[in-house]
């Protein structure tokens, strides 16, 4: 019986993988459902087990069964790992994703699973923490804080109870790495959490997954049940988010798990000292925790050998938006933004020139192609006024209206603000109003820009806030583009330095980068960069 | 004292660790305890960092972002409220950059706030206004045409305060005060982002929500969003006087904030050691009775109670009082008259009334309302420990690990202390509740009792002895403590007694109805859970075995070593503002002030020397004895100050008969209360706002009461007593209550160190305060019991004679509710009736079903003593077989039902156990209608003859 592999990843299923799998099953094949390899332009992908190895075909449909089994299908790709998209990758974290049956303990063990946990449990806890420190692993959720130091703080905190919390509330636009890993290699995350629990002395862990990820939730729950005997006495449970972006902020996430309204806490106290239910808590992103089994199994040096500057190891970069080869690309730090967008991503899917990319989700800066020399590195991006965040890259072509994108950033912040701190609660709404005035003034003075279509979801005259705001005619204040742009910069300053958390604090990144790199979209004739911080 | 807001350091003090850190703030070197916030550090050193969401009654929150500062070596601008000080830290709080950021934040605030300052109720008392000025905001460049939260409807449902969401800045201070200070969790922020708004319960109005109107949110609000209606109506206060609340025994201190002679609001005083800046709906808001139209302001007399009252001059009333008392004594003998002191009046006034009786009447016929509440506490604790008072201060609860609440309902009766207790429980202390009812302590937001033992009313002694049985038989007692502090032989006798199998939890389960294993678990927790603190109320004392129960509690505390340090003890929750003081001041017929027996020659001689008369060595009559003697014809005259015995004492028919049999009943009160229906002379009293003096609360804390306005009736109560005394030729010359306290101090060893100048300087003192305890005594019995060795007393369970049977199958127990205070004379004359307009009979659904009764039905409540009619409240708070009602409303007269049974040692009435039957009814009983007619008739006041 022919063995074929078809992804059960949510993205693959959305592209028709279930129908394809069923068709192969009906044809008498043994169908193994795997995670996704991570290149969506070849999904639905079928890999056929042959003497030559797993030969990929994609994209294929249910009607292609015979041709695929015949080996003659036009979409024959050869061995998937030999495709250009894959040969340059360093799959430390995603090594098994797309290869194994995600819920097969045998597969997981056969592919190196549990080696990290075995190593860790044979070591003194301090040694485990030291290994993570030596690996140079930094928080993959966006903040880039050294994971080992966080663990050390929790290890050193005296308490009757400690917790491991995994942040799987992956809410950034254009990101999907957490989901792919949870759907494609859930035991890897469980192993990482069990290692963390051993290292700091925790007995129980929570995985906080956004409710929009039903496949990931189901997969994680099944994997937790299947592996309970292996990670015992450590226990785990999944908590579903309730749809608030801000609950991806670690302290709001902790409040949400505690059953409270998801609202950001002031720091200090650090969650490492007073986290979940007031107890010392390791709270890490999925990718941080999933990197740990490799580090323990292969050694800190193996991980740290890859990277750039103070950014060590690999980053699973996610290419999305208007890009030809969207998908997950795990690579060592240091690759340039241009390589990722043009060489790996293959430029826009529309075929038009790339005008801007947003890196790091909705709070990340927009960069023009002139910045494509930037190496993928926490420090280099920060120096350029941006951030890596969760390593999502969203590509826009030259039809984008960057003023609308700036407005969208403010609108997103207004829609997702928890409402606790003033700069975010009121400032984001005022920001939308300023952008409406600027766009209105621009469209009056430059009628040719009127009705320019944007690729983002920013809309005018409808949706959240718009109904209340858009028709209001400002008066008694200076509504000139110059005055409103100056006010926008002041507001951005107040939000950036005054906000309690990154939601309000980082919203100025997309706004100011759009303003600085694309002043012409804001009705300005010349760049107005001098006031930028 | 002029009006200025109390200093707000922004964040609470750090939890003491004993370590200090030194840092530099704006160039000034400062050393402070570690854990202190930068904001508080700056405030303590005279600086001022702008703030809106921070206030030192709640934990820091970090939301307003006005308090940002610069810290050398740190990125960004940390919020000073949430950032603790650190050694070597260099902080700048005032820089151009910070000004710019703060102005940016304020500009956002004001872009969504009405600009109606001049007509706003909080004008001049608004932190937003102050801070806008402080940061120098001059322009709002966003304009006022954008999105806004203004223009929302006000919620004016609460009778005392308004909620205007348009003026809300969403700082969450109200929400946090409701959670952290009050512990009710009635408020929340609903929606997100710009739409965030304060919501009471689930979007209800305040009156309909779970809000208990403690006022903490109003106090915390920095704007006019939550504001007292009185401030809106009268205007902002211009002066403040610190005084003590005249409601329950917690003894909260308040700033009476005045505008001219008008009281604008009562604001809990942060430095008050009993309440620590918190309040309840009564003390905070329910003071309107002081100006109520029902108040009687002129003295009145009448020849018989069937006649209308006639207003007379003070001179005539006082002279008539004296001549009547002298006439009666001449005709019926020295002991034919007596008096009742008031637990609502000051120590000084109470002392004067008992002095009037002992010195002027020449007998010891003085008693007080403690007779009907905590007299068993006095007896029981004095027998076992040697002092007639609780052992701790209220702060002690914050060090308790296991809290045992017996027969008390603190969230209703002592709400401010309940909030402290709940705070401690939220911190992790464990709770055991012994109570027939499922009170709010048993289960409320973030509070749940580890064990609730819902015993049948009247079985307290059996229950406590069973707990002792477990402690002794499982060897959970503290042998070292007992050997050192108590008499071991007495302990051994007691231990043998409680160990008998008949006293095991299993054996008494049929009596109490409580599962034995639950009793055992509770006993183990109390004995082994760390600091064990017992708090009890009238559910302990108002029984035929009230004194035994108090002693059983004391036994338990001694056996487990839970006496004599912070966090433990035996604590009666005293009912009235000055019931502790009234007892201390010699209000009992057998005791002089300081609990010294009248037969003690040395003490009596001291008083005789001071007062210049011979004093009676025989104890006088207790209240029930006075009434019995009256119906027997030997007791003919009574002086009652500030107490309504007709409504509050048991078996109303008997009280009425006793009063009716007297020839002269003098009532001194604010209102024509129920007792005044049987009075011949009415002397109008003054409120606590109109006089100076002191109250002593449940923790023995003596606090000043200060006059904030002139007495509407012309005289303070102590002056009226002095007028009566001098009409009896006693020659008193007190010019001020401080002189009375000097006399008390001179004659009472436990008060020897109490003087007004010390109270002024220190705020309060806890007795004993004397040479042995110069700073007063927060915790008693630290090195040894006052009586020497702690005494174990064998407490055999004796069932009450009041028994259920076919005719009276249910047990009635009575109590209070949050919004009303005792007989309701004060609270019924305030807007508190919005919450509790009538007394209702709580009954279990099964009992209601059996009788075909529904919630809200009129029912007849009948006992062997009498019957009344009220409406039913069907609830599972009471167990099947138990019914419960309050006694706040004279229309109900719950005490028509209660019986003559009383405590064996002190005659404290058995209010908590009455066998009753409940049946459907069509409305008020004949008796109620007759009584209402008689009361109306008796309250008639003859129109004044035209003077001009």
TrEMBL record, chain A:
Protein name: Formate dehydrogenase beta subunit
Keyword Zinc: no
Single GO MF descriptor: 4 iron, 4 sulfur cluster binding
Pfam families: Complex1_51K (PF01512), NADH_4Fe-4S (PF10589)
Cofactors required: FMN
Residue span, NADH-ubiquinone oxidoreductase 51kDa subunit iron-sulphur binding domain: 403-450
UniProt family annotation: Belongs to the complex I 51 kDa subunit family.
Organism from which the protein derives: Sphingobium cupriresistens
Superkingdom in the source lineage: Bacteria
Key word Iron present: yes
InterPro entries named among the record's database cross-references: NADH-UbQ_OxRdtase_51kDa_CS, Nuo51_FMN-bd, Nuo51_FMN-bd_sf, Nuop51_4Fe4S-bd, Nuop51_4Fe4S-bd_sf
TM regions (residue ranges): none
Record's keyword terms, sorted: 4Fe-4S, Iron, Iron-sulfur, Metal-binding
Automatic annotation (TrEMBL), chain B:
Keywords: 2Fe-2S, 4Fe-4S, Iron, Iron-sulfur, Metal-binding, Oxidoreductase, Repeat
Keyword tRNA-binding: no
Residues covered by the 4Fe-4S ferredoxin-type domain: 159-190, 202-231
Domain 4Fe-4S His(Cys)3-ligated-type: 97-136
Cellular component annotations (GO), alphabetically ordered: membrane; oxidoreductase complex
Name of the featured protein: Formate dehydrogenase subunit alpha
Tagged with keyword Iron-sulfur: yes
GO function terms (MF aspect): 2 iron, 2 sulfur cluster binding; 4 iron, 4 sulfur cluster binding; formate dehydrogenase (NAD+) activity; metal ion binding; molybdopterin cofactor binding; NADH dehydrogenase activity
Alphabetized Pfam families for the sequence: Fer2_4 (PF13510), Fer4_7 (PF12838), Molybdop_Fe4S4 (PF04879), Molybdopterin (PF00384), Molydop_binding (PF01568), NADH-G_4Fe-4S_3 (PF10588)
Organism taxonomic ancestry: Bacteria, Pseudomonadati, Pseudomonadota, Alphaproteobacteria, Sphingomonadales
Recorded superkingdom: Bacteria
Species of origin: Sphingobium cupriresistens
Family indicated by similarity: In the C-terminal section; belongs to the prokaryotic molybdopterin-containing oxidoreductase family. Belongs to the complex I 75 kDa subunit family.
Domain 4Fe-4S Mo/W bis-MGD-type: 238-294
An annotated GO BP: formate metabolic process
Annotated 2Fe-2S ferredoxin-type domain residues: 19-97
InterPro entries given in the database record: 2Fe-2S_ferredoxin-like_sf (IPR036010), 2Fe-2S_ferredoxin-type (IPR001041), 4Fe4S_Fe-S-bd (IPR017896), 4Fe4S_Fe_S_CS (IPR017900), Asp_de-COase-like_dom_sf (IPR009010), Formate_Dh-H_N (IPR041924), Formate_DH_asu (IPR006478), MoPterin_dinucl-bd_dom (IPR006657)
Signal peptide: none
Alphabetical list of SMART domains matching this protein: Molybdop_Fe4S4, NADH-G_4Fe-4S_3
């Amino acid at each position: 019986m022919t063995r074929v592999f078809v992804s059960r990843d949510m993205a693959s299923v959305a592209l028709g993988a279930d129908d394809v799998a069923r068709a192969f099953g009906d044809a008498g094949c043994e169908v193994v459902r795997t995670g996704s390899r991570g290149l969506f332009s070849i999904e639905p992908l079928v890999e056929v087990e042959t003497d030559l190895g797993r030969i990929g075909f994609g994209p294929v449909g249910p009607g292609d069964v015979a041709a695929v089994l015949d080996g003659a299908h036009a979409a024959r790709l050869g061995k998937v790992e030999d495709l250009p998209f894959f040969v340059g990758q360093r799959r430390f974290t995603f090594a098994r994703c797309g290869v194994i049956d995600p819920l097969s303990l045998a597969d997981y063990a056969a592919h190196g699973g549990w080696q990290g946990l075995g190593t860790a449990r044979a070591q003194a806890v301090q040694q485990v923490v030291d290994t993570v420190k030596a690996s140079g692993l930094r928080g993959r959720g966006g903040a880039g804080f050294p994971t080992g130091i966080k663990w050390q703080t929790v290890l050193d905190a005296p308490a009757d109870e400690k917790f491991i919390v995994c942040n799987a509330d992956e809410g950034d636009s254009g990101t999907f790495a957490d989901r792919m890993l949870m759907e494609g290699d859930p035991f890897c995350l469980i192993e990482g959490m069990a290692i963390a629990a051993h290292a700091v002395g925790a007995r129980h862990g929570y995985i906080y997954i956004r409710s929009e990820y039903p496949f990931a939730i189901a997969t994680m729950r099944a994997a937790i049940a299947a592996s309970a005997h292996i990670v015992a006495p450590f226990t785990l449970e999944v908590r579903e988010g309730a749809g608030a972006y801000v609950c991806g902020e670690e302290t709001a996430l902790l409040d949400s798990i505690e059953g409270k309204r998801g609202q950001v806490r002031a720091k200090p106290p650090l969650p490492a000292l007073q986290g979940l239910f007031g107890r010392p808590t390791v709270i890490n992103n999925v990718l941080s925790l999933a990197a740990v089994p490799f580090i323990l199994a292969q050694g800190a040096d193996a991980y740290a050998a890859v990277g750039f500057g103070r950014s060590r190891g690999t980053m699973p970069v996610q290419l999305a938006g208007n890009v030809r080869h969207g998908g997950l690309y795990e690579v060592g730090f240091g690759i340039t933004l241009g390589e990722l967008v043009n060489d790996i991503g293959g430029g826009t899917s529309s075929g038009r020139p790339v005008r801007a990319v947003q890196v790091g989700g909705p709070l990340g800066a927009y960069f023009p192609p002139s910045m494509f020399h930037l190496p993928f590195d926490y420090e280099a991006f920060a120096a350029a006024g941006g951030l890596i965040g969760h390593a999502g890259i969203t590509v826009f072509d030259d039809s984008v209206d960057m003023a609308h994108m700036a407005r969208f950033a403010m609108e997103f912040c207004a829609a997702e603000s928890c409402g606790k701190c003033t700069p975010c609660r009121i400032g984001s709404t005022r920001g939308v109003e300023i952008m409406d005035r600027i766009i209105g003034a621009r469209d009056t003075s430059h009628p040719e820009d009127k009705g320019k279509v944007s690729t983002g979801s920013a809309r005018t005259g409808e949706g959240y806030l718009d109904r209340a705001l858009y028709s209001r005619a400002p008066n008694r204040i200076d509504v000139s583009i110059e005055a409103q742009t100056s006010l926008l910069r002041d507001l951005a300053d107040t939000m950036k330095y005054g906000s309690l958390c990154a939601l309000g604090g980082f919203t100025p990144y997309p706004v100011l980068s759009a303003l600085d790199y694309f002043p012409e979209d804001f009705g300005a004739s010349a760049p107005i960069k001098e006031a930028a911080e | 004292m002029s009006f200025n807001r109390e200093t707000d350091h922004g964040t609470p003090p750090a939890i003491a660790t004993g370590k200090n850190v030194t840092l530099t703030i704006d160039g000034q070197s400062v050393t402070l305890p570690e854990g202190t916030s930068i904001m508080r550090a700056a405030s303590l050193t005279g600086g001022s960092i702008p703030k809106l969401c921070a206030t030192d009654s709640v934990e820091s929150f970090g939301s307003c972002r006005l308090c940002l500062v610069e810290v050398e070596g740190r990125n960004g601008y940390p919020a000073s409220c949430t950032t603790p000080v650190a050694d070597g830290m260099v902080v700048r709080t005032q820089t151009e950059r910070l000004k710019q950021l703060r102005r940016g934040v304020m500009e956002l605030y004001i872009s969504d706030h009405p600009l109606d300052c001049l007509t706003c109720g909080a004008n001049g008392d608004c932190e937003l206004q102050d801070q806008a000025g402080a940061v120098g905001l001059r322009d709002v460049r966003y304009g006022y045409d954008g999105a806004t939260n203004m223009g929302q409807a006000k919620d004016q449902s609460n009778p005392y305060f308004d909620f205007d969401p348009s003026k809300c800045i969403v700082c969450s201070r109200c929400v946090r005060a409701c959670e952290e200070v009050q512990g009710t969790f009635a408020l929340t922020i609903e929606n997100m982002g710009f739409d965030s708004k304060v919501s009471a319960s689930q979007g209800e109005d305040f009156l309909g929500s779970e809000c208990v109107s403690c006022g903490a949110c109003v106090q915390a609000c920095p704007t006019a969003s939550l504001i007292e209606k009185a401030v809106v109506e009268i205007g902002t206060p211009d002066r403040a006087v610190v005084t003590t609340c005249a409601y329950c025994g917690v003894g909260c201190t308040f700033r009476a904030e005045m505008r001219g002679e008008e009281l604008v609001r009562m604001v809990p005083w942060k430095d008050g050691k009993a309440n620590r800046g918190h309040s309840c709906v009564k003390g905070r808001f329910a003071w309107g009775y002081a100006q109520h139209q029902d108040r009687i302001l002129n003295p009145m007399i009448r020849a018989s109670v069937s006649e209308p009252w006639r207003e007379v001059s003070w001179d005539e009333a006082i002279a008539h009082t004296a001549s009547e008392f002298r006439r009666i004594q001449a005709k019926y003998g020295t002991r034919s008259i007596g008096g009742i002191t008031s637990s609502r009046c000051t120590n000084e006034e109470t002392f004067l009334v008992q002095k009037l009786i002992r010195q002027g009447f020449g007998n010891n016929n003085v008693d007080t309302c403690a007779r009907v509440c905590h007299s068993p506490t006095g007896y029981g604790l004095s027998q076992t420990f040697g002092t007639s008072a609780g052992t701790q201060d209220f702060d002690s609860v914050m060090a308790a690990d296991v809290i045992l609440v017996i027969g008390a309902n603190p969230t209703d009766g002592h709400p401010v202390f309940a909030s402290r207790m709940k705070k401690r429980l939220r911190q992790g202390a464990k709770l055991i509740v012994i109570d027939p009812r499922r009170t709010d302590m048993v289960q409320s937001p973030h509070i749940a009792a580890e064990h609730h033992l819902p015993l049948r009313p009247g079985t307290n002694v059996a229950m406590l002895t069973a707990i002792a049985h477990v402690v002794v038989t499982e060897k959970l007692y503290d042998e070292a403590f007992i050997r050192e502090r108590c008499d071991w032989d007495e302990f051994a006798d007691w231990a043998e007694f409680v160990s008998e199998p008949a006293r095991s939890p299993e054996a008494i389960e049929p009596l109490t109805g409580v599962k034995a294993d639950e009793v055992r678990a509770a006993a183990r927790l109390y004995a082994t859970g760390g600091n064990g603190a017992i708090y009890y109320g009238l559910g302990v004392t108002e029984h035929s075995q009230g004194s035994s129960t108090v002693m059983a509690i004391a036994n338990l505390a001694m056996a487990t070593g839970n006496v004599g340090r912070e966090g433990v003890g035996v604590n009666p929750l005293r009912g009235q503002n000055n019931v502790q003081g009234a007892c201390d001041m010699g209000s009992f017929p057998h005791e002089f002030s300081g609990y010294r027996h009248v037969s003690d020659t040395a003490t009596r001689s001291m008083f005789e020397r001071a007062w210049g008369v011979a004093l009676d060595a025989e104890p006088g009559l207790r209240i029930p004895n006075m009434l019995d003697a009256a119906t027997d014809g030997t007791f003919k005259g009574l002086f009652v100050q500030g107490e309504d015995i007709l409504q509050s004492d048991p078996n109303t028919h008997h009280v009425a008969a006793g009063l009716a049999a007297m020839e002269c009943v003098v009532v001194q009160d604010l209102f024509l209360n129920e007792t005044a229906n049987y009075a011949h002379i009415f002397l109008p009293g003054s409120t606590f706002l109109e006089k100076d003096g002191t109250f002593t609360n449940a923790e023995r804390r003596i606090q000043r009461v200060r006059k904030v306005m002139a007495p509407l009736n012309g005289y303070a109560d102590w002056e009226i007593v002095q007028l009566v005394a001098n009409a009896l030729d006693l020659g008193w010359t007190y010019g001020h209550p401080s002189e009375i306290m000097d006399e008390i101090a001179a004659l009472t060893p436990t008060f020897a160190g109490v003087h007004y100048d010390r109270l002024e300087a220190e705020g309060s003192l806890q007795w004993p305060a004397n040479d042995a305890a110069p700073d007063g005594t927060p915790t008693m019995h630290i090195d040894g019991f006052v009586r020497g060795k702690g005494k174990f007393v064998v407490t055999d369970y004796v069932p009450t004679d009041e028994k259920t049977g076919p005719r009276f199958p249910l047990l009635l127990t009575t109590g209070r509710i949050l919004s009303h205070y005792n007989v309701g004379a004060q609270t019924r004359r305030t807007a508190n009736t919005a919450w509790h307009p009538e007394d209702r009979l709580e009954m279990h659904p099964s009992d209601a079903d059996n009788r075909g009764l529904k919630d809200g039905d009129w029912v007849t409540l009948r006992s062997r003593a009498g019957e009344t009619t009220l409406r039913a409240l069907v609830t599972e708070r009471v167990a099947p077989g138990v019914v419960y009602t309050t006694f706040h409303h004279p229309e109900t007269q719950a005490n028509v039902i209660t019986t003559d049974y009383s405590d064996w040692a002190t005659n404290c009435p058995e209010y908590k156990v009455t066998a009753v039957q409940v049946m459907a009814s069509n409305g008020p009983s004949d008796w109620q209608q007759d009584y209402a007619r008689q009361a109306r008739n008796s309250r008639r006041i003859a129109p004044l003859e035209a003077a001009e």
